[in-house]
Structures are given as structure tokens and as C-alpha cells.
Amino acid sequence: MNTKPSARNNYLDWLRVLAIFFVFIYHSTRFFNLEDWEVKNPVRYAGVEIFNVFSWTWMMPIIFVISGASLFYAVGRGSTGKFFKDKVLRLLVPFVFALLTHVTFQAYLRQITHGEFSGSYFQFLPAYFSTTWETYGAWGFFELEQMHVWYLLWLYLLTLLAYPLMLWLKLGGQRVLAAVGSFLSLPGAVYLLALPTVLLLALVDPNSPVMSEKGGGWSQVIYLWYLLAGFLMLSSPGVQASIQRLRWLSLGLGLALAGSLLYLFIANGVPTYGTSLYTIVFTSAALCSWSWILAFFGLAMRYLDFRTPRLEYTNEAVLPFYILHQSVLICVGYYIVQWPIPDFLKWVVILALSFAVIMGLYEYLVRRFNLLRFLFGMKRVPKTSVVESRETAFAGEKTN
After folding, report:
1. 35 — phi, psi (to 5°)?
2. The dihedral of CA 251, 256, 257, 258: what is its sign?
3. Which of 100, 196, 269, 304 could form an SS bridge with 11, CB 3.0 to 4.6 Å?
4. φ and ψ at 337, to 5 degrees?
5. What phi and psi, each to the nearest 5 degrees, are found at residue 132?
6. Residue ranges for the chain with pLDDT beneath 50
7. Which helix (H) or strand (E) holds 99?
């Protein structure tokens, strides 16, 4: 078995596409779970909440791990200035554009459904653009728990923090990186990647500044570790071979830990910090998170190391899809949850219609115009390529 990393690991692109699509599915269920959200269905379900708790354990963590793994190939390939210019264009530009445009619909619908504002959307906009931090406004960049584009901002900031260490490991600290890779290649040693997460999640006060949650249910310092860990996972062919060998064990551990974690939450609720139950529950959560991450990476390495024209198309679409998905879901869901039809059918309609709207916006607007490509973090391409690339890709797929 050849475990030498290629210039581009196809499985990383598959993981990225599948992870973002799962985020879309997850957010489509938020109308129906117990926890508050921008727009809610009149009836809520504990079963959906269980699905959401399970998703919380690994969904955003694996996206940061994938981002860190991708950085392994990006860091050191060019100048620092070029690296961060690319990150500004790919992350900060679409973050600001989204915050000032379609995310405003999320804020408006949340406020009118929660009785916090009455009036038209255009009457709401002046309040949205208020500069006060107390307002649910565009300028509260670090208070974006309710807005999904927080991920773009924090990925940029955490990349900024991690870059000096990553660059040193790739260029000047190669012996250290090789030693870390050799250690993680030892049988079972890759599970030690969970240790910092365990220590932070189970032992540090969740109300402390270090652990303050800014999006996705996890603190930014834990996301920073996931980013670094993804980088380390790509540091050695031996590490990747170990992850692949342990894929079924990781999956079994993930299933067992998810079951025990859900039982503990159902039986006891969220425990109080400082109690032994708190330590047990959140140690389980950290281990569950890493078991699923390693399982998904191992399975992808084994079964998704191939490339198709459809992957080329979806991999390019994944960032605009993420940027658009929650705004479209909330706008569509706002009307659908009011329909007098069964709730399961509401969810199916919300999911299918939102997907069609997102892909329609992407295919016929975003990807065809270079200005919109720029605003959504995509690279500029010649106009003929923008219009024809999808047809070419699918034609090639049919002939393969």
C-alpha cells in the first residue's frame, strides 16, 4: 500500500465537500430541535436534539482538521505575503460581503420571529448597521454565534496564529516535525491527538476567557488545536497509514462513545463544572470527537482516494455553498414552517428547496461572473471558462 502523500490528496477534497454538505443537513434540522434558533417550527423534537448533540461532537472540529491538513500543503509554497493575500481573498472578503448582504436576512427574520423588532426589512437595516455592540449588528464581528460566517473569520485568525509555527516546522524545524510524525505513527499513538482537547474541554472552566465559545459549540483555542492537529496528521506517511489501519477501531469507539455520551446527557442534562460528572461527560465528548474524526479520515483515505469531474465541480462550489446555505435555509424555512403539513414533510421541502436555490444561485450567478467569484472567495477565471466549465466537466464524466 502506497501511503506517500501526493501533491493533492483527493480524500481531503471529498471530506471537505461531504463535511460542508453535512453542515447543510444539520442546519436544516435546527428548525425542529429543542434549542432556540433564528426561526423555529411550532413543534420541536427531542430526537432532533439528540441528532444535533451527536453532530456537535465532530462536525465543526473535523472542518478545522481538514483546514489544517490542507494548510500542510499550502504553507511554505510561496512567500508569506502571497499566503496571506490568498487567505484575505478567500476568507475575509467573503466574510465581509456576506455580513453586509444576505446575512442581514438572517438577523431580520430572527428579530421578527422573536418579537424583538416589528417593521419591514428596509426599516430594520439601519438598526442592523448600528455600531453599538449591544445591537445584533453587522459590526459585532466577535459576537457572531448566531451567524454561520463566523467560521470564515476565525479560520483566518487562527491560521494567522498558527502560521509561524507551521512555517517553522515545514522549513527550519523539519527534524521536530519528523520526530512528531514518527511518534504519532506508533501503534495507537495517533489517539493522543485527543489529549489537548480532553484537558481543555474537561478541566478548564467553560466560562473562562480561554474557553469562551464563539461559534459551533467549541472554544477557539480548541479549534486552534484541531487546526494544528490536522497539519500534524499530514506530516508523515506513517501517520496516515496508522489512521487508515485504525479506521474500524476508531469507528467502533466513536459509536460507543456517542451512545454513552447521549445517555449521560439524557439522564443528567448538562452537568455543572467542577463535578466528577462534568469531567466524565466532557472527557467522553472530546474522545468521541476525535474517534469520529479519525474514523472519517481513515475511511476517506481508504475509499475516497480518487478524483472525478463531479468532484472538481463540487470542490470549487463548496465555499460559496457554505456561505449561502444558512441564509437560504432560514429564508425558505421561515415560510415552510408555517405550512399546515406534517413536520417531516416540512423538513424534506426545506432541505430540497434550499438545496435547489443554493445551487441555482451558485451555478447561474456566482460562478459565471468574476465579480461574484471574487466576493465569494473564488479565483477569477476567463469568462468562457466560467460559462463552459460545468458542461465540460460533466461531459468528461460521462465519457470516463
Report:
1. -75, 150
2. positive
3. 304
4. -65, -15
5. -80, 140
6. 1-6, 131-146, 386-387, 392-400
7. helix 93-100
End-to-end CA distance of the chain: 25
Judge residue 288's burial from the number of C-beta atoms within 10 Å of its C-beta, 0-12 exposed, 13-18 middle, 19 or more buried. Answer: buried
Using the CB atoms, write b or e for 233-260: b if 16+ within 10 Å: bbbbebbbbbbbbbbeebbebbeebbee
Q: How far is CA 257 from CA 19, 261, 282, in A?
A: 20, 6, 11
Beta bridge partners of 213: 219
With residue 218 as reference, give the H or E element that holds it: strand 218-219
CA–CA dist 37, 206 (Å, integer): 21
Using N-to-C axis directions, what is the helix angle for 309-336 and 383-399, rounded to 10°? Answer: 110
- The C-alpha atoms of residue 155 and residue 63 are separated, in whole angstroms, by 10
Which one-letter amino acid corresponds to residue 268? N
- Write out pLDDT tens, residues 92-104: 999 989 988 999 8
Q: Give the pLDDT confidence of 221-271 residue by residue, as tens digits.
A: 999 999 999 999 998 899 999 999 999 999 999 999 999 998 998 888 888
Residue 285 cell numbers, joined: 465528548
* C-alpha–C-alpha distance, residues 148 and 146, integer Å: 7
Domain chopping of the chain, boundaries: 45-306
CA atoms within 13 Å, Cβ hemisphere of 288 = 23
- Beta-bridge mates of residue 215: 218
